[in-house]
Write a structure and sequence with these properties.
Elements lengths: L4 E6 L5 H14 L4 E5 L5 H12 L7 H25 L3 E5 L2 H11 L4 H12 L6 E6 L2 H7 L13 H17 L4 E5 L4 H19 L2
Helix pairs in contact: 1-8, 2-3, 3-4, 3-5, 4-5, 4-7
Length: 209
């Protein structure tokens, strides 16, 4: 039996890294073997693309260039990490996946979402996350949480950009409520973890009856 594919999504400052650690610990407690990875990244090539986009001195990238770089990294990531792990029965927990491209490049950068959908189908036809945890908070909350750190390529964007990203994420959640579970990330960590735990427990019941 193949492993489950779980992704975490959300705008900046919503606590994805903390949530990922909590999900990993929950699955470990259930004796489920996991592979934790991220996008862009997860492979040597993916990390180079990630670093170049986030920290590189490349000036302004077009929405289309950004999108293609994301999918190039994703295709290699799928071949080298995600598909082999799933085939071996391990569960994959990934910090961002194609929903992020729809939200950031499609929503934030206004790249054509139909084009992104076609790239998505070409790069990972037949494979979508089994569960996506979308951490959601008002834009102001996320930006306040990251105010003390040096901003990267995306974090330098303005409020309107992140409002479009958030709206695109929530549109995806409305379209796929069976897969994407929206979690209010504004309350305390204890409350957020409780909601995450409820969704993970329900998913375990479905995937491992």
């Amino acid at each position: 039996m193949r492993g489950a594919f779980i992704t975490l999504e959300g705008t900046e400052g919503v606590g994805k890294t903390t949530c990922l650690d909590f999900v990993r610990e929950s699955l470990s407690a259930a004796d489920i073997p996991t592979v934790v990875t991220r996008e862009p990244g997860g492979t040597e090539l993916g990390e180079k693309i990630r670093n170049w986009i986030l920290e590189g001195n490349h000036g302004e990238l077009s929405a289309e260039t950004e999108t293609l770089l994301m999918f190039a990294a994703r295709a290699f990531h799928l071949d080298e990490v995600i598909r082999p792990a799933l085939a071996a029965g391990r569960w994959v927990i990934c910090d961002r996946f194609s929903d992020a491209t729809v939200a950031y490049q499609g929503g934030g950068r206004r790249a054509d979402k139909g084009w992104i959908k076609s790239l998505r189908a070409a790069v990972h036809a037949g494979l979508e996350p089994d569960l996506t945890l979308l951490l959601d908070a008002p834009v102001e909350v996320g930006l306040h949480r990251i105010r003390a750190r040096a901003p990267d390529h995306f974090e330098r964007e303005n409020r309107d950009f992140f409002a479009r990203v958030r709206a695109a994420y929530l549109e995806l959640a409305r379209d796929e409520p069976h897969r994407i579970k929206v979690i209010d990330a504004a309350p305390s960590l204890t409350e957020v973890n409780s909601r995450v735990s409820a969704h993970v427990t329900a998913f375990l019941g479905r995937f491992c009856p």
